[in-house]
Amino acid sequence: MYEPFPVSGPEAVPERTPPPRPVQNAVWLMYAGAALEVISFIVALLTRSSLKKAILAAHPGYTAVQLHRAEVASTVVLAIGAVIAIGLWVWMAQANGRGLSWARVLSAVFFGINTLSLAVSLLARHSTASVAGHTVATMIVGIAIWLVGLAAIVLIFSKDSAPFYAKRPRYG
C-alpha cells in the first residue's frame, strides 16, 4: 500500500485565482465579438447582391459565368475569414481567461489588425469602385466588432488586470 505524495511546503502548487472583474468582462466581450462575427457573416450573405454589383462595377465585361464564379469565390473567402475570426475571438477569450500573458499581447496585435482592416474598409467606402461592395449594415457590424475589441483591450490592459497576467506557474 502506498500513500499519495504529500503536497506541502515550497513544492506545493498554488491554487489558481479567479480572474478579476475586468478580465471576466473582457472575456465575455471576446465571446460577444465571436457572436458579432457570426452576425457579420450572416449580414454579408444576406447582402450578397451588393457583392455582385461591386464585381460588375469593377469588371463590366464579365459574362454571367465569370460573375457567378467571382461571387462564389468571394463568398468562400468570406466564409473562411469568418471561421478564422470566430476561432480567434474564442481562443483569445479562453487564453485571457486563464491569465496567459502572451494572450494579452496577441489580443492587442489582433486588435491592431482589426483597426487597420476597418480603416481600409472605411476609406475604400469613399472610392467609387468599392462603394457597392460595402453595405451600411456590414459597416455598422464592423464598427460594432471594433468597439467590442477596443473595450476588451482596455479591460485586459487595466491596472486591475495586470497582476492576473503576472508570471504564473504552469499547471499540470
Short description:
The chain is mainly alpha-helical and 172 residues long.
pLDDT < 50 stretches: 128-133
Helix-residue proportion: 55-70%
- How many strands, which pairing sense, and closed or not: the largest β-sheet? none
**Helix-strand makeup class:** mainly alpha
| 3D shape | elongated
Provide structural commentary.
The chain is mainly alpha-helical and 172 residues long. It has one domain (32-159). Helices cover 67% and strands 0% of the residues. It is built from five helices and no strands. It has helices spanning 21-46, 48-58, 64-97, 101-124, 136-156. α1 packs antiparallel against α3 (64-97) and α4 runs antiparallel to α5 (136-156). The longest helix has 34 residues, at 64-97. The radius of gyration is 22 Å and the shape is elongated. The chain starts with 20 loop residues before the first helix and ends in a 16-residue tail after the last helix. Mean pLDDT is 85; it is low at 128-133.
Question: What order do the helices and strands come in, and which of them pair?
Answer:
Elements: H1 21-46, H2 48-58, H3 64-97, H4 101-124, H5 136-156
Helix pairs in contact: 1-3, 1-5, 2-3, 4-5
Spell out the key features of this protein:
5 helices, single chain, mainly alpha, 0% strand, elongated, 172 residues
